[in-house]
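Lab notebook page, bench 4
Experiment: in silico fold of construct C2
Operator: M.H.
Input chain length: 433 residues
Purpose: comparison with the prior construct
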Amino acid sequence: MPNEAWPVASIALDMVRRGGDRASAAAGESLMSVIVPAWNAEATIEEALASILDEHAAPLECVVVDDGSSDGTAAVVEAIAARDARVVLLRSPENEGVSEARNRALRAARGTWLAFVDADDRLRPGSLAAMWRASQASDALVIIGQRIWNDGLRTWITDNYDRPDIRLPGRKSIANNPGLLYYASATGKLIHRSCTDDLWFHGRTIGDQPWTIRALLRAADRIEVIDDIVYEWIRPAPGVQGTSITSTTRSRAGLSVEAIGVATEAVLAVVDEAARTVPDAPARARIASAYVERLLAVDVARHLKNALSRKDPDLADILAAIEAFVRSVPAQAIAGSPALARFVLVPPMERLPKLSRRSRRAYWSLLRATRRVDPRVVSTVPPGPARRTLRLVGGLPGPVGPTLWEAWHGASRPIRAIRRRLRRAARRATPMS
């Protein structure tokens, strides 16, 4: 991607060059660039930047990209930059999304090391110093710190994150520690610039996963996991809607299809990177399978679950995107996946009678696609009514099973309607106590 001229950035960089913290960098010391994408983050950006700028144990610049905010985000950052020459502000004329905001920062960043903080999150005190010390104490190319979730009422970690590969400190690699794939965000890490040449973020959601994983693959076994809690991932409290560049991306239902498309591209990019960086063929196969499993169990499952919960009228499009994912990723990486049955096939089947005809057609097409990729997929469905139905429908050749189910469903609809009317009549006839 070409370099771009940004007048505000040029002014800020001149200020930084005059700053005392940059004098050591000019003398040849390593510099850490902390990248902060921001959109309508007026309420949170000051706290996020304070958690970065409180750090004085390591030479750093803080590159903030205002992604076309309509509130006072830029004014807040400008005021902070006037007090602290380490802050660089870039301004996009329009909202382009978190990935492009990070790319703008990458083009401007001058650091040997890269760290990322979202404008609605914050670093823990001493976190940059902890990662900096680890980077200077060994030949590691990536330092991974610990992350906690915080909604203002409590802190926690999720089950998907609570894995030995992530939680136990030590020297790691993706090939030997595939659990690291469940910590695929760019945040909470310090990454040497040499691992990121020609890598760019893509997509308004999931866009940091292939970037981060490819950087980790390039680091090989020079990944150091530390036990310091470095990052607080702020989630809105119950009943509160987040509005930042990242929280809005996570909540916009219309981006589900795009997100699943990006997931497809991500798998192919990671498989391609592994082919160049991992010499052992079985290890490459394990990486591909582990990443597909992670995407199905976490990202695809979340979008599908949300669409089903809100009775999304575009559910058929989401199911079609999942089918494209199943068809596009390497067959050997998805065959035998427990998540494919548990998180993709079962949830829609459990609500199938309530889905629109268009959504049911998309589901049957998805079922046929999964059976072609993995003929044994139905046998991996957990016990229950969905398993019995799937075994019956999926065990019949071609479209026979779905055709019979649709015929039964159509014939039983009048009976179910009569039962509902009888139940309502019975409730009205029951005397009040």
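Observations: The two ends are 73 Å apart (CA to CA). The chain has two domains: 7-243, 252-394.
Next step: discuss at group meeting.
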